[in-house]
Amino acid sequence: MFNYDTYSVLGDGDCKYQGAISPPIFQTSTFSGGEYSYTRLSNPTRAALEQECALLEKGKYGFAFSSGLGAINALFSTLKKGDRVVVTDDIYGGTYRLINRIYKNYGINFVFADLCDLETAKKAITKGTALVFAETPTNPMMKIVDIAAVAEITHQNGGILAVDNTFLTPYFQNPLTLGADVVVHSATKYISGHHDVSAGIAVTNGKRLASKLGLALSTLGNGLSPFESWLVLRGLRTLPMRMEKHQGNAYAAAEFLNSHPKIEQVIYPAMPQHGGHLLCKRQSRGFGGVVSFYTKDEKTARKIISGGRVIKFAESLGGFKSLVTYPITQTHASIPKHIRNRIGINERLIRLSVGLENKEDIIADLATLLAD
Asked: Residue 48 burial (CB < 10 Å; 0-12/13-18/19+)?
């Protein structure tokens, strides 16, 4: 472990290494002497980020990876042949691809279930389940999983619960305090916030799981580089202000879309008609900046994804720029069509990551894109 008596961010943004306010970048692959030896194993800049993320997630052990999928890959690498894993049914397409094209080849039994339905969760999470993997809100359907209830079911059956907290970040939600055993993030998104870095985070309170994740990071070679670690740390400094702005803009966009005649349905947890609205209020401190919605016809959806003056068409979320994503051809293209149809991902579904622009500009751009 790194000695935080000499170098620490401690959640307050201060760095005590030679009085530096901003943490320095230890841009070196090799160390001579001291507690560090080789950056693939550990690096002071990455350690600072890991400690900061652990503190924000109310955890003890943090790990920084080269991408969100890198963090999930490290988690899945702790599994063994024959393990049973229950996964949210409308999982992000990249996670689905990792499961079905990589880890299913290793004899691991993955079961997809609607974890938002507790009766379904109870039937799926049986004795001997090794891992339950949930997103909440889910991507892109914005469904809300009852973290505390699913954690209880998981623990009763001998498993551990992992929660992907990318959409709400530790600013709005702390799954570990609700019973989850490990939380993961695509820090490429809100935590970094500037469309300029790819990163992933995993945080846990479990010493045994932390040991396994640390082994995965150092052995698989997908630890986050010093410079990218510094960029993510920089993004963290403005996370509270950015998340509040994202959320305010998202609510304004959701209200506009909800009243537009060309929109069939808006899916945003802040809206009272959302099925998970009360649960999200109970277990989280906010609703985030992602709004999904159905247009009334495919032609309208295709026009929206052409992009506008403010809103751009791109496959990401959580940055300063407002982005529209078309799940059937982008984030969820690797998921078979019959599964997409079952969970509601069709030609009329749009995911909007609402950025930090002036909300009037965002709404004006949506109005233009929806105009005849």
From this structure: buried
